[in-house]
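Technical annex, item 7. During the second reporting period the consortium partners agreed on a shared format for inverse folding records so that results from different sites could be compared directly. Each record opens with the tokenized structure and is followed by the designed sequence. A conforming record, contributed by the partner at site C, is shown below for reference.
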């Protein structure tokens, strides 16, 4: 895939975080409450600030934590649609540059990630807070 660095994937993000994602960001010195919140279903998600992910630098048009970004961000624009399954997100202007092979590879990673997040939520073994944010 070729990325145009448009930042559309960082606008109004609903990105789920796994325990590993949160741990990696905490190791960078960020507090969980700075970058994440617990949604109504009990899943931990990235926060938005001024319409974009808290880690998106709108002036530079880039991610402040790119090398350490969550796995869901790494595999974007491959997403899960309840209606269609694994698909390429229509918001991405470069969606046509994803090959079938890349879609399949990232789709497998996504399925594993979602299963892991579901398992973590069931066990509630890492939710350290649950506040509206």
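Designed sequence (site C submission):
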């Amino acid at each position: 895939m070729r990325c145009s660095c448009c930042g559309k994937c960082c606008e109004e993000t609903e990105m789920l975080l796994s325990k590993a994602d949160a741990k990696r960001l905490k190791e960078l010195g960020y507090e969980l409450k700075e970058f994440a919140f617990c949604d109504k279903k009990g899943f931990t998600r990235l926060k938005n600030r001024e319409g974009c992910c808290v880690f998106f630098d709108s002036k530079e048009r880039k991610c402040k934590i790119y090398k350490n970004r969550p796995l869901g961000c790494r595999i974007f624009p491959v997403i899960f649609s309840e209606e269609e399954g694994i698909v390429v997100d229509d918001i991405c202007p470069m969606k046509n540059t994803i090959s079938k092979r890349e879609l399949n590879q990232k789709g497998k990673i996504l399925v594993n990630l979602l299963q892991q997040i579901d398992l973590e939520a069931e066990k509630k073994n890492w939710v350290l807070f649950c506040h509206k944010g």
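Helices lie at 19-27, 32-35, 71-75, 100-123. Residues 129-133 have pLDDT under 50 and may be disordered. All partners now use this format for quarterly exchanges.
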